[in-house]
Amino acid sequence: MEDVKTRVRARIVELRNELFEVCDYIYKNPEVGHHEHRAVRKLLRAIKDRGFIITENLAGLETAFQATLTGQAERPHVAIMAEYDALPNLGHACGHNLISVSSLGAIFGLASVMSKLAGRVSLIGTPAEELLLDCGKKRLVEAGVFDQVDVAMIPHPFNRNHFEEPHYAVNIVKVRFYGKAAHAGGQPHLGINAYDAISLTLTGISFLRQQLRPDARIHWGDLEVAEPNNNIPDRSAINIFTRAGDDDYTNQLAEKVVNCVKGAALMTGCQEEYNVEESNRSVRVNHSLANLFRQNWLSLGLTGEEAGPPLTASTDVGYVSRVTPTILPLFKIIEDQQIAPHTVSFLEAAGTEAAFEAALHVAQSMAMTAVDILRNPKAMSQIKEEFKATGSRP
User: Is this model's pTM higher than 0.85 or not?
Assistant: First the structure.
């Protein structure tokens, strides 16, 4: 097996310049979710004429695709996912350019040895990870794209190495209040203040936080208030986000927020409307699969996992982890653990050559992990048994 892994690693190194050009292009041309047309064109041009069967507009999404290469058999089927959407006004401050090139490099490495392997590999381009209510992976899962996938992998840059972070689930409580407009100076007693209802809701949430689990998070945004400044506003709206390390508690948090909404409506006399929407689910990490990745990572002589505070971020990878064994290894691109994704400092780090080199190491590790799965039925069986035991779909 080592001769195959050696070839995989070497091929990724051989393509270093081509991979860097792809990474740098995506970094310098950031596009928000479902509009990543240049990134997808760049990735598909790199894959073209290399023997892959390519499906564009996957599941009806303009910036989703699948590129598949089959070896000596149809199964197992290993999917390596790519993300390439950027943040509004912040560009690739989450490092999705590095995810793209890691996954692309892994697929290129595997392409050089697929004739020796029993199974197939796919690069699945997944758009709009950053869009909480319209994320790409959820739509791809619902369309059945991962139904015939035996194992899925996707990396993510971070401020430390860690291979088994579960990530947080997220719900969004969309709230609207309806009151009665009145002149704030002349006839305030005739008004019902819709903004007061939001203020009371947030006050209730502030007191609620004292009794929450340490891993719980509640935050808000998208505040809207109608009427000019000298009027009692008759309409208001806000989105409130609940997060926790597991789905059940995240749902309980949403129920608690709804109770705050109802109480605020009762106190002000407003009419309330609310809708709880599931955004992301927590990631069910497959430990057997993660351990294979860990062994391959360490075999490259790289630094192992580092201690740090629990990761409270979320991702739509959670949906994939419900239908197939999945890992989401985090790899370090910056030394300071105080610098997190979605910041200017992380944006700067994501464009460095050092970050690109880390991405190449991840590409090698994922490709070697795929080799283990495709050549070792026992490893695949262990991964599947663990997946069934988690209560995920068999």
Answer: yes
